[in-house]
Amino acid sequence: MAESSKENKEQKAELFSDPTVPGPTTSELSALATRLNYSLNDDELKQCHSLINGALKGFNRLDHLVEPTLPVKYPRTPGYRPNGDENPYNAWYWKSTIKGADTGKLFGKTIAIKDNVMVAGVPMMNGCRALEGTVPDVDATVVTRLLDAGGTILGKARCENMCFSGCSFTSAYGPAFNVHDKTRSAGGSSSGSAVLVMAGDVDMAIGGDQGGSVRIPSCWNGCVGLKPTWGLVPYTGAGSIEPSVDHLGPMARTVHDCALMLEVIAGYDDGLDHRQPPNIEVPEYTKKIEVEGLNGLRIGILKEGFGHEASQEAVDRIVKEAAQNLTNVGAQVVDVSIPIHTNFQGLGFKGYYATNSMKTSGAALKHDTKHLSDTFKYVMLTGAYLNETFHGQYYGRCQNLGRLLRQAYDDVLKDCDVIIMPTLPFVAQKLPTDGEMTLEDRVTQSINMTQNTMAADVTGHPALSINAGWVDKLPVGMMIVGKHWDETTVLKVARAHEKIMTSK
After folding, report:
1. Is 446 a catalytic residue?
2. What is the 3-state secondary structure (H, E, C) of 214-257?
3. What is the CATH number of the domain that holds 60?
4. Which helix (H) or strand (E) holds 387?
């Protein structure tokens, strides 16, 4: 017995001594110390080298322990990348049918998943060729919830390169086309999600939003897209840009289906998403929004949401008219102002990390940078310069000032139930032709429509885009912003507007 115990200890010692986490060489450590402006003599460098390599032995144990993972409950095949007539708007990235439960709120509904959200066994490239060949081994929480509710996933919707564009020309394998005019942008970064919904390929789709990426393509294609309150919908298993502004949200052709999808995907994720309070309540939105009129409800028309330098007069007019029409069903419309609205253009978190995808995608992005979009490079270069030169103080200032913006919205929402403004200041832009744009042009066109959408990502308020009318046969989006955790009122106002539009 004693010999067996001794043998087990020796096997464990041999197992955990395996150098799976190689330490730096002395020359690598010296170069690192120089970059950090640390002054170390040769003897101190050798001692640091010994200490670091000793510390890293503890990391060797991690590679021999089994990590908890996310469930993969429904069978699927890897699928294929569709082309030609099967993908007329270039909105699909990958097709793979996954049938969910035999009953549930979404039984009979078909769904597309934005290609920055993990679906186990199905390729995910996040719009970037550098990540081509990456296959997640887990299902994101929202994917599991959609399948548990009886939905059928038909595949992955094309998204913009690393989700860093509000226009739809940066994705690998070409642009996604606007469903109303193929010469125009579908918006981004959830470009494929909006197009597949409005083209009738699916009933609903998951989108992601860090600066407007659910609402921008919803606006330009004419569907309903909701960025929920920050933390209402778990982000577990989705590709992150910045945890303090990461959101996933529903996109559908009707307010009812948008509300129905939210009922399914919202709610606490058992501690896997650090942004979520454990006492999240998820009402039956579909029942609560079917009311007769908006009696007693106050709607604020945000002064700073209109009249931007790039605003189309017709867009501003249509949104104001749509808001005024809500007075016909009992709402009161008032003018409000948030001056700081136009001035806003956490690195770490506790939660689930998809380590296999982190390893493969991290290596790919480091060595295959030629496939990264100009916008991604611009943002990363700016961030690296600010962090290295100013040691993250401007990141900290932005987070601190974000609290002022949030408070400014909260103050207005004490007297109003929702705030309304144009989702975007102009209708869908023309897609660029190869060779006609400089790098600066490409970056500018990727982010020049976000004047109104970015604020709600910073503040975390729920914000929904719905079609308000048309300019030159192109949709105009109206954005409805509500109080934290009050998606019910946002959806109720959207439903009342939808009824007015369908009655005309």
Report:
1. no
2. CHHHHHHHCCEEEECCCCCCCCCCECCCCCCCCEEEEEECCHHH
3. 1.10.20
4. helix 374-390
373 as an active site residue: the answer is no
Is 70 part of any domain? no
> Is 89 found in the same domain as 56?
no
Helix or strand run (H / E) with residue 409 = helix 393-415
Residue 173: domain span? 84-503
162 lies in a domain?
yes
Helix (H, G, I), strand (E, B) or coil at 427: coil
* In a domain? residue 4: no
Residue 40 C-alpha from the chain's centroid: 44
Which among 96, 168, 193, 213 is annotated as catalytic?
213
Question: Is 189 known to be catalytic?
Answer: yes
Residue 14: per-residue pLDDT? 43
Q: Kindly give the pairing relationship between strand 177-178 and strand 181-185.
A: antiparallel
Q: Out of 96, 109, 114, 165, which one is annotated catalytic? A: 114
Closest CA to 167 of 380, 342, 374: 374
Whether residues 167 and 300 fall in one domain = yes
Task: For residue 249, give the CATH number of its domain.
Answer: 3.90.1300.10
How does residue 15 score in pLDDT terms, banded at 50, 70 and 90? very low
Quick one: pLDDT at residue 389?
Answer: 76
Residues 273 and 209 in one domain: yes
Q: Is the peptide bond before 189 cis (omega within 30 degrees of 0)?
A: yes
**Residue 298 has which token pair?**
């106050």
Residue 91 shares a structural domain with residue 57: no
Q: Are 448 and 310 within 8 A, CB to CB?
A: yes
Number of folded domains that form the chain: 2
pLDDT value at residue 55: 80
Q: Is the pLDDT of residue 277 over 80?
A: yes
3-state SS string over 139-178? CCHHHHHHHHCCCEEEEEECCCHHHCCCCCCCCCCCCCEE
pLDDT band of residue 303 (cuts 50, 70, 90) is very high
Q: Is the pLDDT assigned to residue 368 strictly greater than 80?
A: no
CA distances to 101, 196, 413 from 112, in Å = 17, 8, 34
Give residue-wise pLDDT tens across range 187-235.
999 999 999 999 999 999 999 999 999 999 999 999 999 999 999 999 9
> What is the distance of C-alpha 373 from the center of its chain?
17
Q: Give the three-class secondary structure for 451.
A: coil
Same domain, 239 and 125: yes
Q: Per the confidence metrics, is the pTM higher than 0.85?
A: yes
Name the active-site residue from 168, 185, 189, 446. 189
Please give the span between the terminal C-alpha atoms of the chain, in angstroms, as a whole number.
86
Q: Do 40 and 147 belong to one domain?
A: no
pLDDT in tens, 77-106: 889 999 999 999 999 999 999 999 999 999
Greatest Cα pair distance in the chain: 87
Residue 37: its pLDDT value, please?
Answer: 83
Asked whether residue 140 is assigned to any structural domain, the reply reads yes
Mean pLDDT, rounded, for 136-142: 96
Whether 39 and 90 share a structural domain: no
- Tokens (6 digits) for 347: 């690195």
Same domain assignment for residues 50 and 102: no
